[in-house]
Q: What sequence folds into this?
């Protein structure tokens, strides 16, 4: 993958825990040509199955909204939409003012996984593995974005759609919505990284129940097991998207460099051994200590009042 190779080259001579962390992330790329993965090859194959789109709206507030848009297929991912998603993630990686991201589906439903037209056409094991690696790369990069993300789940999040929710830092659910890992019914297991992320979110026992039982997770159960952080009230001011924005704004209030630093230290704590995470935290701390937000706070506030 070109982006991964460039980033590795740029960081090869760097020092410090943060540099090592970035190198280890390789821009979120789990797979590269070392693993037999050729991104352009699978992109071409995926582009042959068009339909729908992935739309990205960035706002001056530092909040972005990513919309999965294929209502006639319950927002299932066509091949071209998988490529769209990777391109939108690339845009977000380069958005220096970003603080928060909401991932939603169009027309009141989240996402029903993969479009079966693309799935049938890529049903041989070799193409299936390449698609798996492509989507694991993309969703890992989504989770590692230097901004706080939340999946707004309305309607149904099924299969790959359920996996997509786990690639966000948080999940909020509308009343009547469902998250369901239906892979077993298709003779499969998650392939977009959803199982590994699910274990980290709800624990191995709950993950085994959800995957083995293909359990329909409603908002009440999601809250109980920690899969969701909030259920949006049926009655309330504004649309579900506006209410999700209000929920997220609690965690994205403040200057972008500070919010991004928060995400970086949490990310390093989640992914790195303790000693390396501590060194990374020190390096990130150094990027904000004495910075504009820090100096302004020192001038205007006192902890001891």
A:
């Amino acid at each position: 993958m070109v982006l991964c190779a460039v980033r590795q080259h740029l960081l090869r001579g760097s020092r410090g825990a943060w540099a090592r962390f970035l190198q280890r992330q390789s821009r979120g790329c789990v797979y590269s040509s070392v693993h037999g993965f050729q991104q352009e090859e699978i992109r071409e194959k995926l582009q042959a199955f068009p339909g729908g789109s992935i739309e990205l709206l960035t706002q001056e507030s530092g909040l972005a909204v990513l919309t999965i848009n294929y209502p006639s297929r319950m927002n299932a991912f066509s091949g071209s939409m998988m490529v769209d998603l990777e391109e939108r993630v690339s845009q977000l990686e380069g958005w220096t003012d970003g603080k928060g991201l909401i991932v939603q589906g169009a027309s009141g439903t989240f996402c029903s996984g993969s479009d079966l037209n693309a799935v049938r056409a890529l049903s041989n094991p070799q193409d299936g593995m390449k698609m798996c690696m492509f989507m694991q790369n993309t969703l890992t990069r989504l989770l590692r974005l230097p901004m706080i993300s939340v999946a707004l789940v309305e309607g149904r999040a099924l299969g790959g759609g359920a996996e997509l929710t786990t690639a966000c830092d948080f999940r909020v659910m509308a009343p009547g919505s469902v998250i369901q890992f239906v892979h077993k019914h298709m003779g499969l297991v998650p392939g977009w990284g959803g199982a590994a992320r699910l274990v980290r979110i709800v624990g191995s026992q709950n993950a085994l129940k959800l995957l083995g039982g293909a359990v329909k997770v409603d908002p009440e159960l999601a809250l109980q097991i920690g899969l969701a952080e909030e259920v949006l009230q049926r009655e309330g001011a504004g649309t579900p998207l506006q209410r999700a924005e209000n929920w997220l704004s609690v965690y994205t209030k403040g200057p972008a460099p500070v919010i991004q630093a928060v995400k970086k230290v949490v990310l390093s704590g989640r992914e790195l051994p303790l000693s390396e995470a501590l060194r990374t935290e020190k390096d990130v701390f150094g990027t904000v200590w004495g910075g504009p937000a820090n100096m302004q706070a020192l001038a205007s506030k006192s902890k001891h009042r």
